[in-house]
Design brief:
alpha+beta; 2 domains
């Protein structure tokens, strides 16, 4: 049997990990919740640097939390300092609350995660920031501290403040529960985390952008992830290792001089030994290691360069009403159940969709490639709209493949400039039945005000560059994060759905081949809270 090319391996992985009516993707036969992988990683021996929470900073930074959500990018530019870095991480990656039920207790975070398993680890590269030594840090959300992983033995030629945030994924946290499909979920979580950081940066008056020219191997070196002796192997082999994902740079007057920083990082002196996540894994999923290797970037982006256009409709500038930025970000939760009779007004629905449109603001300014995803919408109960299937064509050409089954009619009720089309009017009970069936028979997809399927350009980008597989899921995760926050801002609540039947959905909307594939589903509705759960503060010791 011939060895598969990286692009063929990616396509084979995607086909293999599809859920089907007759069988789910390969996963563990049973879960031992008492033997769940550790939710937090520490580097033993690395010095700790406490970070202030937003509520512990000065008046100007605390004022960021009090601004209205629609004013997220309307404030001044904060100085890069240990205090503002603390606020950035508090609003994007930190714990926001603890939930408990009987003896069980688990953390909620500002960035959501599939199964609340949180495979994403965050690292900072810092230079020229007062009260924070130059070097590489690992962020610890369990106590909102930084671990000083490496200090620079050679000083940088420039002392202009510089801040980069790198993400890795500890894929075993997801694979422990989800098996072979876990690689998909890890990429979605990177997208959620990227959008969370981009929105938090915008609140501080900052902008972030990805560094796609960095090869995955280079990023591994810069974040210290290639240091095998720092990540002791368990019985399962690679379960303790972290996969490099993306580097985000704060964009301001200081530029990241690649040669200079590379030389400084080459001289870095490392410290700390990674704690064990799961010393006795029960399963192994070799296909995850294979697709991770196949999708690593060579540092050359072959996707279509992005032409950033300013958002022209529903830009929703600052308002004296509405929830505060802090309430939206720190109160974000994943809904567990929806009121099957709840509804939302069309203005909120249109506003949420407008926020997902690519434009010059956060979080979309963080991306360098053209958007590749459009949204197919199951609209159940939006005041003034007929129940049925709709299409938000974030890429105009995405309405063409469905023309054989539907007439994509521009929605007259939609605001000017929002490319929203009605595909079909559907009986409410039939739409509920179909939405539930497509989304792994989950009531939450039928009881929502609307459900979303994210349809990505697929085979062509992957043929050009297999690393595009990660990029497509990252974009989907970013859309999910925007929907989470916008839902929180207007009253309903959202939840991501990673479990759906891939090809039955494609058949429903008349797709053939692999030019387009659904990569993530999402729902928004009126939540029903579980009153049995107790909620406590994020950092009670502080």
């Amino acid at each position: 049997m011939r060895e598969l090319s990286p692009s063929d391996l990616v396509l084979a992985y995607h086909r293999r990990t599809k859920h089907r009516f007759e069988a789910y993707a390969q996963g563990p036969a049973a879960l031992d919740w008492d033997d769940q992988p550790a939710p937090f990683r520490r580097f033993v021996g690395a010095p700790l640097v406490p970070l202030p929470l937003a509520a512990e900073t000065g008046a100007s930074l605390q004022a960021v939390l009090q601004r209205r959500w629609r004013e997220i990018a309307c404030g001044g530019v904060a100085e890069i300092s240990i205090e503002s870095i603390g606020v950035l991480l508090n609003l994007s990656l930190a714990i926001t609350a603890w939930k408990s039920w009987g003896p069980d207790r688990w953390a909620l975070r500002a960035n959501p995660s599939s199964g609340n398993l949180h495979p994403v680890e965050a690292y900072l590269i810092v230079r020229g920031v007062a009260d924070l030594a130059d070097g590489v840090y690992h962020y610890c959300p369990d106590d909102h501290t930084l671990e000083y992983r490496a200090h620079f033995a050679v000083p940088s030629a420039s002392q202009a403040p510089l801040l980069c945030i790198g993400f890795s994924t500890l894929m075993w946290r997801e694979a422990w529960k989800y098996g072979e499909r876990a690689f998909r979920y890890c990429q979605l979580d990177v997208g959620h985390a990227t959008a969370a950081v981009a929105c938090a940066a915008a609140a501080l008056g900052w902008s972030i952008g990805e560094r796609p020219e960095l090869a995955t191997t280079t990023l591994a070196q810069w974040l210290g992830l290639d240091r095998e002796s720092d990540f002791p192997a368990s019985h399962g082999g690679n379960t303790e290792r972290e996969e490099p994902q993306i580097l985000l740079q704060l964009i301001d007057d200081a530029t990241l001089a690649g040669v200079d920083l590379a030389a400084v990082l080459a001289s870095a002196q490392w410290q700390g030994l990674a704690s064990a996540i799961d010393p006795n894994p029960r399963y192994r999923w070799p296909i995850i290691d294979a697709v991770a290797a196949a999708t690593r970037s060579s540092g050359i982006s072959l996707l279509e360069p992005r032409k950033i256009a300013p958002r022209t409709m529903l830009e929703q500038a600052g308002s004296a009403s509405g929830p505060s930025l802090g309430d939206v970000i720190l109160s974000r939760r994943s809904a567990q159940r929806f009121d099957p009779h709840g509804s939302m007004v069309a203005a909120d629905f249109f506003g949420m969709l407008a926020a997902t449109m690519p434009g010059s603001g956060a979080p979309w300014s963080a991306l360098v490639n053209e958007p590749r995803i459009s949204l197919v919408l199951f609209v159940h109960r939006v005041t003034g709209l007929e129940t049925g299937l709709y299409l938000l064509a974030r890429r105009p050409e995405h309405r063409i493949p469905m023309a054989g089954r539907f007439d994509a009619v521009p929605l007259a009720e939609a605001p000017s400039g929002l490319p929203l089309y009605r595909l079909a009017t559907v009986d409410p009970q039939e739409l509920r039945r179909v939405a539930r069936a497509i989304n792994c028979h989950q009531d939450i997809a039928a009881d929502a005000c609307f459900a979303v399927a994210m349809l990505a350009e697929f085979s062509a980008p992957i043929a050009a560059d297999p690393a595009a597989y990660r990029t497509l899921f990252l974009e989907a995760g970013m859309i999910g994060q925007v929907l989470y926050l916008e839902a929180e801002a207007c009253g309903p609540r959202g939840t991501g759905i990673g479990c759906f039947f891939d090809d039955p959905f494609h058949e429903l909307i008349g797709l053939e081949g692999e030019d387009l594939q659904s990569v993530y589903h999402f729902t928004v509705g009126v939540p029903i809270d579980d009153t049995r759960l107790e909620i406590s503060s994020a950092y009670p010791h502080r």
